[in-house]
């Protein structure tokens, strides 16, 4: 190792080392490998051009700690037999401090989703379904995820910039909503320690020469930082009760370069780039409103102009000349960016308009056609395949690329973010055009733009709007999966892989429920037109379900519903955005009751079985959980004020063997709280997911009868807790926001492992859960 000259080529040594180290990895992934293996095996394999599943075995991945497998895969390019490595790269940014069992389980699910999409159970031998140490058995999936996640942030990133240090290192800089600045290697690994301002959000970052950069935030302060040393050098400006609305460099034709700072009251301040002291230089008078700034490069001897946006108006100013105003935008301008062509710049606004302008005349030279849907939040200028281009970030979660000369789109939309991108920057140091975006989904994503206009758009899975599994009580011959997205609704048979489409029309399905009426299995679908449709399942011949009627009374779409038996009747409880809980007799297809006690929308519905009959439990956006008696209406019990900054979801834990019946609520604050159904008091400490709101929640029992809860939300992680022991059992990381959890509970006594469905922006997956090892 110390004398690389002894080898014919440097990669020969790494290839042999990787081969030798791979032989030291135990076949059982539950056995911890030597720390050197987990830290360096993937790197040796990459350097030796043998980065594949044989040289980096599956068993070492749950222990992998180099945190750069996804980067190594990008550098090494496509290889042979990298299925497990690629599956690990998808979830690697999200696993963080998960325990090895959770990592292995997450890897197992990710691998199945990537390699067995829509594969029927009959097509997968039982021997290949299991994996030693995994807590699940994947059964069926329709899951598509982008692989361009560069990094994941705990906090919302609101600003991005890039810089090249004096030693040639290319770095990304991000500023977040909590006032923290982080630096990243261009492959996503953090560089240095976070820098804390202990002030407002960092919304502007401006790299300078000599390894410095400037930040501006909502606390009204401008700060100067040393990039390599990671320390604060100066705070030349602080204006309380204002915020920094713009930062740019400005070089007049006959004066030294300076830093221009704009505050929310329209005041401009010029700072010397060496001393950071205020300098006396001519500046335009602005309205008392937030100003967005960018310096516009002119011809070599003409210095720079300044483009300034305030509200819907943009103007161009040069020292010694009058302000040149452009035509007024339709809506508030969100970003102004300088183009590499002298005297040219681009703007975008909340109407979705993107304009390209000439600074000398104030006239528009081109406009983006067609305009993207919704507001455009940020812009970045760069060369794409030799053409001057602008990348836009839209409220519709996409990035788009535009020719800066014609305004015409280059290629299709770039999809992958699950929330709007908030900031953009070009990524330096690569021969290809690259852009990094920071989204409200708390991910930094890397986009390769070379050849974008000539290659077909990547197929992106539409987010699932509803999904469900039938319970054991539904007379179905095999595992059925109901899935809906914007493209339509389908009923899949996981055993055969076949599916049928529901002729549900153009309205999107917002919720599912399963029921049995007079022995006939039914599927109920709630729609965006506020109606509920009833379908009879033709399980015998695999044909499309037939329509059995429609329930209409809600004024806003139903968000949750649950069917249950009450004596000889089959009832349906529904909760809607109109704030009401309604009760229906499915046999007669008529409404029995309407309860309007929730002040805001009803987000979830559950049913609690008690000795005295079933109770309907509803979770409201007003932060309460309420109980309803199907026979009498309100159960006579007061609402539960959950104190969770809003309740998104609710589940029930029926009593067994002398246990108390419990109600679980999932909140905006990221907690799950348990409530005694009899006393309506808190039952023990809350469970803390620790990674964002809990928006989906189910309860189930293991074959041994242990009550468990599974919770998920926008973080994309499924948390599993033991209710009795109050312990966290498992984290199943998917890397994409989840909106739905459903459970197929087994009959009494529990003789099988429960089956869990998870669905969200990337699709749907179904798996058996095995927790008895704990």
Sheet with the most strands, sense and barrel status? 5 strands, antiparallel
Tally of helical runs: 5
Number of strands: 55
The helix/strand class is mainly beta
Percent in strands: 35-45%
Segments where pLDDT lies below 50 for 5+ residues? 747-751
Spatial shape: globular
Summarize the amount of helix as a percent range: under 10%
**Average residue-wise pLDDT:** 88
The quaternary state of the protein chains shown equals: single chain
Gyration radius over CA: 29 Å
How far is the first residue's CA from the last residue's CA? 43 Å
Structure explained in plain terms:
By secondary structure, this protein is mainly β. It is built from 5 helices and 55 strands. The strands form 14 sheets. Strands 40, 41, 42, 43 and 44 form a 5-stranded antiparallel β-sheet that branches. A 4-stranded antiparallel β-sheet has the order 1-55-54-53, with helices on one face. It has a 4-stranded antiparallel β-sheet with strand order 2-27-26-25. The chain is globular.
Name its key features.
774 residues, 55 strands, 8% helix, 43% strand
Describe the SSE topology:
Blueprint: H1 10-22, H2 35-47, H3 69-76, H4 83-95, H5 100-115, E1 136-143, E2 149-152, E3 157-164, E4 170-176, E5 180-185, E6 190-196, E7 202-207, E8 212-217, E9 221-226, E10 231-238, E11 244-250, E12 258-263, E13 268-272, E14 292-297, E15 304-310, E16 313-317, E17 324-325, E18 333-338, E19 344-349, E20 354-358, E21 364-367, E22 376-384, E23 387-394, E24 399-403, E25 421-426, E26 434-439, E27 443-448, E28 464-468, E29 480-485, E30 488-493, E31 499-501, E32 509-517, E33 520-527, E34 532-536, E35 546-551, E36 558-566, E37 569-576, E38 581-585, E39 590-595, E40 602-610, E41 613-620, E42 624-629, E43 633-634, E44 640-641, E45 647-653, E46 662-667, E47 671-676, E48 687-688, E49 696-701, E50 707-712, E51 717-722, E52 727-733, E53 738-744, E54 755-760, E55 763-769
Antiparallel strand pairs: 1-55, 2-27, 3-4, 4-5, 5-6, 7-8, 8-9, 9-10, 11-12, 12-13, 14-15, 15-16, 16-17, 18-19, 19-20, 20-21, 22-23, 23-24, 25-26, 26-27, 28-29, 29-30, 30-31, 32-33, 33-34, 34-35, 36-37, 37-38, 38-39, 40-41, 41-42, 42-43, 42-44, 45-46, 46-47, 47-48, 49-50, 50-51, 51-52, 53-54, ...
Helix pairs in contact: 1-2, 2-3, 3-4, 4-5
């Amino acid at each position: 190792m110390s004398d690389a000259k002894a080898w014919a080529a440097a990669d020969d040594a790494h290839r042999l080392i990787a081969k030798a180290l791979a032989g030291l990895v135990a076949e059982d992934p539950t056995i911890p490998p030597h720390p050197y293996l987990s830290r360096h095996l993937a790197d040796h394999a990459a350097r030796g051009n043998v980065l594949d599943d044989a040289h980096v075995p599956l068993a070492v991945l749950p222990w992998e700690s180099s945190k750069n497998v996804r980067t190594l895969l990008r550098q090494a390019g496509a290889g042979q037999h990298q299925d497990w490595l690629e599956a690990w790269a998808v979830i690697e940014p999200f696993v963080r401090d998960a325990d090895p069992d959770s990592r292995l389980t997450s890897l197992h699910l990710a691998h199945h989703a990537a390699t067995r999409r829509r594969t029927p159970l009959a097509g997968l031998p039982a021997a290949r379904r299991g994996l030693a140490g995994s807590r699940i058995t994947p059964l069926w999936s329709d899951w598509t995820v982008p692989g361009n996640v560069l990094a994941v942030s705990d906090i919302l990133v609101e600003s991005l910039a890039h810089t090249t240090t004096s030693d040639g290192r290319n770095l990304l800089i991000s500023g977040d909503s909590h006032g923290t600045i982080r630096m990243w290697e261009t492959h996503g690994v953090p560089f240095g320690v976070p820098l804390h301002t202990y002030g407002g959000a960092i919304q502007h970052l401006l790299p300078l020469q000599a390894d410095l950069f400037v930040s501006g935030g909502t606390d009204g302060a401008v700060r100067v930082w040393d990039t390599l040393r990671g320390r604060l050098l100066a705070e030349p400006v602080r204006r309380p009760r204002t915020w920094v609305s713009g930062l740019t460099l400005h070089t007049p034709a006959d004066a030294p370069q300076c830093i221009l700072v704009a505050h929310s009251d329209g005041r401009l301040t010029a700072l010397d780039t060496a001393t950071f002291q205020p300098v006396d230089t001519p500046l335009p008078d602005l309205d008392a409103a937030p100003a967005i700034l960018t310096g516009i490069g002119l011809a070599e001897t003409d210095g720079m102009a300044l483009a300034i946006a305030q509200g819907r108006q943009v103007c161009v100013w040069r020292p010694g000349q009058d302000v040149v105003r452009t035509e007024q935008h339709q809506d508030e301008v969100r970003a102004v960016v300088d183009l590499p062509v002298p005297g040219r710049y681009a703007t975008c606004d909340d109407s979705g308009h993107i304009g390209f302008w000439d600074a000398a005349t104030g006239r528009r030279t081109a406009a983006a056609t067609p305009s993207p849907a919704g507001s455009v939040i940020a812009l970045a200028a760069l060369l794409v395949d030799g053409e001057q281009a602008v990348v836009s970030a839209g409220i519709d979660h996409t990035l788009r690329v535009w020719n800066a000369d014609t305004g015409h789109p280059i290629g299709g939309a770039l999809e992958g973010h699950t929330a709007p991108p908030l900031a953009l920057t070009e990524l330096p140091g690569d021969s290809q055009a690259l852009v990094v975006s920071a989204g409200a989904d708390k991910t930094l994503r890397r986009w390769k733009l070379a050849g974008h206009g000539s290659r077909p758009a990547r197929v992106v899975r539409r987010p699932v709007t509803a999904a469900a599994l039938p319970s054991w009580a539904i007379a179905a011959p095999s595992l059925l999966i109901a899935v809906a997205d914007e493209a339509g609704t389908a009923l899949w048979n996981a055993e055969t892989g076949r599916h049928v489409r529901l002729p549900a029309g153009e309205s999107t399905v917002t919720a599912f429920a399963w029921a049995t009426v007079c022995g006939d299995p039914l599927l109920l679908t709630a729609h965006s037109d506020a109606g509920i449709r009833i379908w009879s399942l033709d399980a015998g011949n695999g044909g499309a379900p037939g329509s059995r009627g429609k329930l209409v009374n809600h004024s806003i779409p139903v968000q949750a519903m649950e069917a249950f038996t009450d004596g000889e009747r089959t009832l349906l409880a529904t909760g809607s955005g109109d704030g009401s809980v309604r009760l229906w007799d499915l046999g007669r297809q008529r409404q029995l009751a309407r309860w309007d006690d929730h002040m805001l929308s009803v987000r979830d519905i559950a049913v609690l079985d008690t000795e005295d009959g079933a109770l309907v439990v509803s979770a409201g956006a007003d932060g309460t959980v309420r109980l309803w008696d199907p026979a009498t209406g309100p159960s006579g019990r007061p609402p539960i004020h959950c104190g969770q900054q809003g309740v998104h979801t609710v589940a029930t834990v029926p009593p067994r063997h002398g246990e108390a019946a419990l109600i679980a609520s999932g909140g905006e604050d990221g907690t799950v709280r348990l409530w005694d159904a009899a006393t309506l008091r808190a039952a023990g400490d809350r469970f803390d997911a620790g990674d964002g709101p809990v928006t989906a929640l189910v309860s189930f029992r293991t074959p041994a009868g242990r009550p468990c809860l599974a919770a998920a939300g926008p973080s994309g992680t499924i948390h599993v807790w033991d209710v009795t022991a109050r312990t966290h059992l498992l984290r199943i990381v998917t890397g994409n926001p989840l909106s739905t959890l459903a459970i197929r509970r087994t009959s009494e006594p529990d003789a099988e492992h429960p089956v869990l469905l998870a669905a969200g922006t990337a699709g749907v997956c179904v798996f058996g859960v095995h927790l008895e090892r704990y």
